[in-house]
Design a protein that fits this description.
By secondary structure, the protein is an alpha+beta fold. About 25% of the residues lie in helices and about 35% in strands.
Length: about 160
């Protein structure tokens, strides 16, 4: 089945042409974070979606994964990285993160769930320090990307 990566640039997610794509991103997040991991919708849906950039991975017409890119006072944060259960173990999380790294510049960081730290290390992220903190009652570590801008691993679609 054909895969497509859609890139919603920062500030465009609420446009009428992009609303359906944002809804698919949110559907994936609701499934992974709210239903699987028990994260409160109020935490995951924090009101930042309209101002953030988003990546949506489609398999055919089906949403398989998403990632949100948010600018903060500390740099660019990759967050809300989620792959639906039936699409895991196929390298799709790696694909989304590599796409994001090719689209952003400057200081890039993540708040990685401790259970996923090895995944991010294999991609090249390094732990800022060994401090563990909790977000939504899930242990996390701050990890940084020390390698500069990445190379786009596939073609992305930018809706107009």
């Amino acid at each position: 089945m054909e895969q497509t990566v859609i890139y919603l640039e920062a500030g465009t997610a609420s446009l009428p042409t992009n609303a359906a794509y944002l809804a698919l991103c949110q559907q994936v997040r609701r499934s992974v974070f709210v239903q699987e991991q028990g994260v409160s919708e109020a935490i995951d849906f924090d009101g930042n979606d309209p101002s953030c950039a988003h990546l949506l991975l489609l398999f055919g017409d089906e949403a398989a994964g998403t990632l949100r890119i948010r600018t903060t006072s500390k740099g660019t944060k990759l967050e809300r990285i989620a792959i639906l259960r039936e699409y895991r173990k196929q390298g799709l999380g790696k694909l989304l993160v590599r796409c994001a790294l090719a689209l952003v510049e400057g200081q890039v960081y993540i708040h990685a769930q401790v259970q996923s730290e090895g995944f991010y290390q294999r991609l090249g992220f390094v732990a800022e320090d060994q401090t563990i903190f909790y977000e939504a009652d899930i242990p996390h570590k701050t990890m940084i990307w020390p390698h500069g801008k990445g190379v786009l691993p596939c073609t992305i679609t930018r809706p107009s």
